[in-house]
Amino acid sequence: AARAQSAAAAGYQPESEFYKVEAILRPWRVPYVSSGLLQMGIRGVTVSDVRGFGSQGGSTERHEGSEFAEDTFIDKVKMEIVVSKDQVEAVVDKIIEKARTGEIGDGKIFLIPVSDVIRIRTGERGERAERMAGGLADKLSSAMPIS
Ligand code: ATP
Ligand code: GLN
Description:
Layout (H helix, E strand, L loop, with lengths): L1 H9 L7 E8 L4 H11 L5 E7 L2 H7 L12 E11 L3 H12 L8 E7 L12 H4 L5 H8 L4
Antiparallel strand pairs: 1-3, 1-4, 2-3
Helix pairs in contact: 2-4
The structure holds adenosine-5'-triphosphate (ATP) and glutamine.
The site of glutamine has 15 residues, from strand 3 and helix 6.
């Protein structure tokens, strides 16, 4: 309940029914994150191998005035998860819980509004397309039956 309230209070701008949670992660933490997400009912996840620099790459590689050489980029994984607005904070909390070491280079999370979701197989749009069988919304509704 505390999580749902903080999501409502977050007041993301621009407002949207769906958000993409985009997380840049240490590759070796990805299995922890994905199993944590799967356990909570997040079943739609896309990952890509990427390379980047933040304070981790930059601090050791900066030389007076020179550009970052391409070989200073550090291997990361980008994880993209589209969820309904009310699930954003739970997903963010889970990613932090599973990805964090406390050392520089743990990564970052970006929240991006998503205009619509379309399931190619059926042509469904919006909530019908975003919902997944056995997903978080299903788990919550079966855990809290209307009495
Ligand atoms: P269907 O019922 O037709 O199988 P689906 O909703 O289960 O539709 P898939 O076609 O299985 O979707 O998904 C294909 C790919 O789309 C997945 O492998 C994943 O990379 C990506 N994907 C699906 N849903 C999401 C989501 N909510 N967030 C991020 N990526 C997703
Ligand atoms: N919000 C969807 C559901 O509850 C799950 C979305 C996802 O797995 N990325 O069914």
